[in-house]
Specification:
The chain has 4 helices and 9 strands. With 162 residues, it is α+β, with helices and mostly antiparallel strands. The strands form 2 sheets. Strands 2, 3, 4, 5 and 6 form a 5-stranded antiparallel beta sheet that branches. Strands 7-8-1-9 form a 4-stranded antiparallel beta sheet, covered by helices on one side. Helix 1 crosses helix 2. The chain is elongated and about 65 Å long. The relative contact order is 0.21.
Amino acid sequence: MADSTFDIVSKVDKMEADNALNQAQKEIAQRYDFKNVGASVDWSGEKLLMKASSEERVKAVLEVLESKFIKRGISLRSLDTGEPYASGKEFRIEASLKQGIDQADAKKVTKMIRDEGPKSVKAQIQGDELRVSSKSRDDLQATMAMLKAADFDVDLQFVNFR
């Protein structure tokens, strides 16, 4: 019998992120506390750029964006947010979306699978994703449950279960 496998990835649906951004823009345009403070959030290349006239206001813009991400089902672990910084008369925050699992996090996941997972389960790093294989589908499902319960710095999704 062939081995059963699944892949562990960390990807953000660009359209869902765009929808969350559009909802945040609408709320910022309508809210009274954002009137006349130059508050905005928009794409700047591959990054999200938030602007406002004060540090508190730009943090409030970030909170609005984060709440819209949560409502659209996007994990905040996949949002890499910088610190507020002054740019002329306004404050800005840059944030980017994390795509893929970097080598350090992939090694943490494989080490956990090796140490705490069922003995028949093998994990290998393939670029920015992981392939997990075993003869037993039950062991793979137990591994998925273990990884969901663990707290990693990245948002993990499980795909291609066969």
